[in-house]
């Protein structure tokens, strides 16, 4: 591995410190990004970084709500990666991008494993995905995905 891209960190944690030590030991280049950055992969393929935003840092559940949110675009296809953001971050993101087509995506990686604290109807209505993917372990102790989240996803007629 030669490069790692991470979102701007607004809180230090043990995991983050361990990560920094590992990349230094392995001489891996770390690129820190935030809202407004574009990561070009190749012709017609790029990621737009939509969150975190150093001008609007969320202090509530800081690590989740300032996690990296990116939109991958390849020609007419797009995928919205939402990390572990929760309702408060979704509201801030919708407020920032609702007057544009920025959030609208072909595929949505559902935030925070389908937790009840994420995937609010307003966010889903703006994203308008045709497909939603939820990363979750079978019989997990958190009860993910939440039934209300699944119902909200059904309302947008995937």
CATH class: Alpha Beta
Helix coverage percent: 25-40%
Low-confidence region ranges: none
Total helical elements: 5
The biggest beta sheet is recorded as: 6 strands, mixed
Give me the count of strands: 8
If you consult CATH, what is the topology?
Answer: Metallo-beta-lactamase, Chain A
Average pLDDT for all residues: 90
- Which architecture name does CATH use? 4-Layer Sandwich
Report the end-to-end length measured between terminal Cα atoms.
36 Å
| CATH homology superfamily name | Ribonuclease Z/Hydroxyacylglutathione hydrolase-like
Total tally of structural domains: 1
Structure description:
There is one protein chain. By secondary structure, the chain is an alpha/beta fold. The chain has a single domain (34-155), classed as Ribonuclease Z/Hydroxyacylglutathione hydrolase-like (Metallo-beta-lactamase, Chain A). The protein has 5 helices and 8 strands. It has helices at residues 14-25, 62-65, 87-97, 121-127, 147-155; strands spanning 3-7, 29-33, 38-42, 45-51, 69-74, 77-81, 107-109, 131-133. It has a 6-stranded mixed sheet, with no helix packed on it. Strand 5 (69-74) and strand 6 (77-81) form a beta hairpin. It is globular and about 50 Å long. The model has no long low-confidence stretch (mean pLDDT 90).
Give a brief outline of the structure:
The chain is an alpha/beta fold. The protein is built from five helices and eight strands; from the N terminus they run E-H-E-E-E-H-E-E-H-E-H-E-H.
